[in-house]
Amino acid sequence: MRQPDASLPQVPLHPAPWNLRGSGWIVALKLPPGSAAADAWLPPVLVGQGRALASALMFVDYEESGCGPYRELLFIPGAFPFPDGRRHLSISRIVVSTWDSVVNGRNNWGIPKDRADFEVTSLRPDGRAQEVRVLDDGREMCRLEFATLGWLPPLPVHSAVVPRGLRTLAQAFRDRTYYYAPVASGWIRPARLSSWRFDASLWPDLAGAAVVAAVRVESFRMTFPVARID
Question: Does the model's pTM come out above 0.90?
């Protein structure tokens, strides 16, 4: 169940833009036909409207952000039609480790953040393998194990090579639409998702999804701009 706005604590407001720095893991997924995960946790206006060549699961550990360090797990099921007449990627489920991130993420970009506890364990001394556990009031929401592949050198990436229209996300939230196009740069290595499990009552059920590709993202910097709100 999404944490209602009325239950959120009072925290300092940190308006956009935000400059963020950190590392993480990105996994591209292929959902099976008819998967409940495609519509789980979406606002009613978007249910049944999604299209996707692939969905995305991301764990991010922000060392710096507009509201301090925090951790984040999110799922993007696909692209959806929005009032501007275009389809945009949209986050359906996202949990973060601090209330500051919850409140400001909702206010600034309409991102439907909830708070959860994160336990991150390094499985190798170099940090290139991690176990991530996410808990909701002590109940395990999901458990993920990631690792990089081999000793290939990291490759530089920059979102500038992606047209703005393709990297613009949109959120239907509080009866408004938020549009935002983050800019990011960093380094990536090929990786694998070694194992995963989910509580389908707390997170989209990805048990039937196929992993298309995975990468480790290192030393990335990202700017979240001021959203356009319609």
Answer: yes
